[in-house]
Structures are given as C-alpha cells and as structure tokens.
Design brief:
Among the domains are: about 135-275, no CATH class; about 285-290 and about 315-540 and about 545-555, no CATH class. It is about 45% helix and about 5% strand. The chain contains 28 helices and eleven strands. A five-stranded parallel sheet has the order 4-3-2-6-5. The chain is globular, with a radius of gyration of 27 Å. It is found in: Membrane.
C-alpha cells in the first residue's frame, strides 16, 4: 500500500517538475530578452519624479566644468523616453536605428575585419619549462605612469622575476604621478587571479614576509631595454649579498626581441591572461551576470542546476552592450587631454592662454625633463595627437557616415565644448562612460584615473574599430591586445602624412572631398591591424638608439605569441605571408618614424 502511494506521488511529482522547469526556462528567456527593462539604469530610477531635488552628489555632478559637458548631449538608447535623465536629450530616432553596415558594400568595408586572420594565440610553455622551486629572494616593484604603462611594466617584471629566480611581491601602483591616483593593485587588477594564474611560472606573494621587513634591501636602477643575460648575470649576482631587491624603475626595462621563447610567451600569459582587471571593473566595462532576488520557485534540483549554468553565462555587457545598442561602433582614443598636451608641447588649435597654461604645467612638473618644445616642429614630425577637428576630417575622409556611433576613450578633453564642437557637428553620436553610465554606476571609479582608464581600455579592446589619435602607451597596448585576440580592426593614423594634408586644407590649397578621401584611404590601406611581424630596429641606428627604435613587444606580439593555423600548404603559405608581412612592416615602420 505504502509502495503504491509512493509510486503515485512520483508520478504526480514528475510532471510537476517538468512544468516548473518549463516555467523557469520561459521566465529566464523572457528575462534575457528584456534585460534592459528588468535592470534599468540607476539614472532612470532617479528620474521618475521631475520635481525631486537632486542629492548633493547629483548636484555636484551637474556643476561639472565645460570640459565634461560635451559628454552630456546624447542619451544612450538603453534609456527609454520615460527613463531618460533630464540633462540627457535623446538622439534622433534615425540615429538610434543606425546599423553600421547600412546594407551597402562601402559601409560593409568600413567594418570588415583585416584579411589573413588565421593567426591564433600560442603561449603555452615548452616541454622543458619547469615550475618555480625555491626562489633566491624577493623582488619589490613600484610602478610609474598611467594604466597601460603600469600594465606592460608589471608583465615585464613577471618575466624578470622568472629570469632571476625571484619571488615577486605584488607591485605597488603609482600614487605620485600627475594623476595622484590612490588606487592599490587590488582596486585595479584581480589580485588573487594574478597570483594563481602565474603559479606555474613565478611565485607571487601579496606582501614581503615580516621577518624580511627590516632586512637590508638594495635599490637597483635596472638598465633600460636590457637583455636576458643582463638580468641573469648582473642582477642575479645580487642574491649573493641581498635577500630583497627593489626595482627603482620598472617601465621599458626589458628588451623587445632576442629573448628566449619561453620568456616571451610568459610575457603574453602575464599580460593577456594573468593581469585581469578587478571584478568590479570587468563588470562595469564588459560583463555583468544577472542576479535575482528570489529563486524559491525553483523546486526542481535539475531546473536549479540548469538555471545556475545559464545565470553564470555572461549575458549583460554594460558599457560595451550600451554602445552596441547603436550598432557597429568606433572606439576613439582621443588623446587631447591636458596632461598629454602639456607633456608633448602640442598647441595647434589652442588659444594663447591655453598654450601658456600648458607651458606652465610642463615647467612645474619636476619629472618631465624636456621643458622647451617647438610646437610647430613637433607637429610636423608627427609627434602630436590629432586634434578633435582633425579626427573629424580623418573619419569623414575614410568614409564613416555622420551616424557612426563613436565611444570617446579619454579623460577630460582639454577645452571641452569648444574643442569638441567641430567633431560633434560631424558625428553627433559621441558617447563616453560618463553618459553611457549613470552617476551612481560610475561613482565607485570616480577620482581614480587608473580605474576609469581601465573602463576605456575594455571598451576599446571590444570595439568594432579602434582608432587612436596618438600612438601613446594605451594606444599601443590596446592595439597589441586586439592583435592577440584575432587581429581586430585597428586604424593607426599616419599623423605625419595627415598633418601635411591638413596644412594644405588650412591654406586653401586642398578641399575636403573625393581627392582628399582617396589620398587618406590610400595612405591607410596597410595601417588597419593586419597580421605582420613586429618591427625590428631601424637600419643605421646603433646601440641604445637602435633598441629604442624597435616596435614595442606589447604593440605586436607576433611572432612570439601568435602562430598560424595548420594548413595543407603550410610552408608555402607561411613563406608568402612572411614576405607580405615584412614589406608591410617596413612601410609602417618608416611612416611611424
């Protein structure tokens, strides 16, 4: 009797579980397809009462200077008519519907990925690579510079620690540079992941052991662009007298080429796998997993397991997803910020008062060695960032229509509205983290330049097309990362060639139109991120000048960390590819120099 009752209960319970699972799946699908309405921007929730007074934080935000106000002119499409914040007027409906490709061949070419995309990451160590055993001492590192300079320096110090058989103490981030950022390593990077991901390569600890805190340390200035032999023999010999070595400077301390293959691959593992951004930054910039308040209705364990599998899949991208709601988009690294212009001495298009302000900043910044700079000469050598106006002319000449969504990966643009006016008149859909996210969403990162730069870095890597206005540290780091991920389209402006064309326009010798467009397209047909070998030193240069003329390792990790997929005609294919790559590399190298 009891057994019959149990069978009856099982018979009833089984369809109940199936019904519950079905309901779960339907609810989940509905949730996924309507995620924007389920998870509105905090800005949206705050705007329901038009008569509500702003909080002190919101009031301070509304008082931002003109440098930021150019970012507040277009509401992203994830905010509905009812949800839009009062200070963010909506973009025209036609712009919201823009779909990058636009259905015609010319537009498709704009977003088309570079050819020969059959290179894949190959960063596994060789068969004779060993895990770290007992190390000889501890390596302390204090980073310097901005986010990308710190990233590459940290990865190089991982390689150095391997070479000299050291335990690496988690690096201290720069808190003394121009930006005065107080962030610690764990605020910007995923510290535990960094340590665990490198467990088979280098021993990493969070702090120096207490028993060594009072030990004698040697502060060593590692030579710039140094070789494997220098670190193994010269720096390695210091272990005979010291247990702790502190690197006085850490950026550009390791040569780009002529290192053992395993060391080069380690640099890539450190940069593209171990050095991951902190979870809160990754979530804001790229991936956020859905969370629900209540799951009590998941009565079935099988349904619950299915739900957990689906819920862990990254389904909501914040900044990236909001940009993609416009269609294909460009990430523009617009390096027209006060610190960049002051450091480089570039004043084209600025007022006399602005030029004087930048000169004062340069004079008063002690660690900037060069004080007297000829702005005109600097510009015609191609060593100045393109101005926002020049970027607009450049994009138009390449064929990007005015409806193109553009993410501005930058800090405060110098001059704000004044200097952004021409670019905005050409391309109204200029977006940034400040107007894609609400004040509340950005608040944890505000006043931390490295964390804000990390958000820009993520969107830049994930964009359909990346265009830097200047080949600085971030531009090079993003380009290299995009190459590593499959040679995503990166258009590198030939600034020296463009400046001469822009000069002719200013003198009335050349007009915008098909002639200018054809010339700019021709100049840049081989500057769009296609696979090529990393450039070596410029012929005729000697010693350190020769080393510094090399293309940076993290700008182009080919051939060390990228290999061609196997094919039937692999040898012929590789030889032909290498010939094309070498010719392309030589042309690009000469243009950069």
């Amino acid at each position: 009797m009891i057994q019959r009752r149990r069978r009856r209960m099982v018979a009833v319970d089984k369809p109940r579980k199936i019904l519950v699972c079905t309901a779960c799946v339907i609810a989940l699908v509905g949730l996924l397809t309507g995620y924007v309405r389920v998870f509105p921007s905090p800005r949206a929730s705050n705007s329901s009462d038009p008569h509500k007074l702003p909080t002190q934080h919101e009031f301070n935000y509304q008082k931002l200077s003109a440098e930021n106000k150019w970012t507040e002119e277009v509401a992203p499409p994830h905010l509905s008519e009812q949800q839009s914040s009062p200070h963010l007027p909506k973009a025209p409906v036609s712009l919201h519907k823009f779909n990058g490709a636009g259905g015609n061949l010319d537009s498709e070419k704009l977003w088309k990925l570079p050819e020969a995309r059959d290179f894949v990451p190959c960063i596994q160590p060789s068969s004779n690579y060993t895990t770290p055993d007992k190390t000889r001492g501890y390596l302390l590192v204090r980073t310097n510079g901005g986010l990308s300079q710190m990233r590459t320096g940290i990865c190089d110090m991982v390689a150095v620690a391997r070479i000299i058989n050291a335990t690496l103490v988690v690096p201290e981030l720069d808190k003394r540079s121009f930006w005065r950022d107080t962030s610690n390593f764990s605020d910007v990077f995923d510290e535990d992941h960094f340590i665990n991901a490198l467990a088979n390569d280098v021993k990493v600890v969070k702090k120096l052991p207490k028993e060594l805190s009072s030990a004698t340390k040697i502060v060593k200035h590692f030579k710039s662009m140094s070789s494997f032999k220098y670190y193994r023999d010269v720096i390695g010999s210091l272990w005979e007298e010291y247990r702790v070595i502190r690197a006085a400077k850490f950026d550009s301390r390791l040569t780009n080429n002529d290192l053992p293959s395993d060391i080069q691959k380690l640099r890539c593992r450190a940069c593209y796998e171990a050095l991951r951004f902190a979870p809160q930054i990754e979530a804001m910039g790229k991936v956020i997993s859905l969370t629900l308040i209540s799951i009590h209705f998941l009565a079935s364990s099988a349904c619950f397991s299915l739900f957990i599998v689906l819920i862990k899949f990254p389904i909501l991208q914040l900044l990236v997803d909001r940009m993609r709601s416009y269609g294909h988009f460009i990430a523009l690294h617009l390096r027209f910020e006060k610190d960049m212009l002051a450091y480089s001495g570039c004043t084209h298009g600025l007022s006399n008062a602005e030029a004087k302000e930048l000169e004062t900043i340069r004079d008063e910044t002690a660690n900037w060695k060069v004080k007297e700079i000829d702005a005109t000469e600097q510009r015609y050598r191609g060593q100045c960032p393109l101005t926002p106006k020049e970027v607009g002319i450049f994009l138009n000449a390449l064929g990007f229509p005015s409806e193109t969504p553009i993410y501005i990966a930058a800090g405060e643009i110098y001059g704000g509205v004044t200097h952004m006016a021409d670019l905005r008149s050409r391309y109204p859909l200029l977006m940034s983290k400040e107007n894609l996210a609400s004040v509340a969403e950005l608040e944890p990162f505000t006043n931390h330049s490295s964390q804000m730069a990390a958000l820009d870095y993520i969107v830049s890597v994930e964009s359909d097309v990346f265009i830097p206005s200047y080949s600085g540290n971030m531009a090079r780091a993003v380009e290299g990362h995009r190459r590593f991920l499959g040679h995503r389209k990166t258009i590198s402006p030939d600034r020296r060639g463009l400046v001469h064309l822009f000069g002719q326009i200013e003198k009335g010798l050349l007009k915008e139109g098909s002639k200018l467009s054809n010339r700019i397209i021709e100049i840049h047909k081989n500057l769009q991120g296609s696979p090529r070998r990393r450039g070596g030193s410029v012929p005729g240069t000697k010693s350190m000048e020769s080393t510094h003329s090399e293309e940076a390792f993290y700008t182009n990790p080919l051939p060390d960390c990228l290999c061609r997929r196997a094919s039937q005609n692999v040898n012929t294919s590789i030889r032909e590819s290498n010939r094309k790559v070498d010719r392309s590399m030589q042309k690009e190298q000469l243009k950069v120099l």
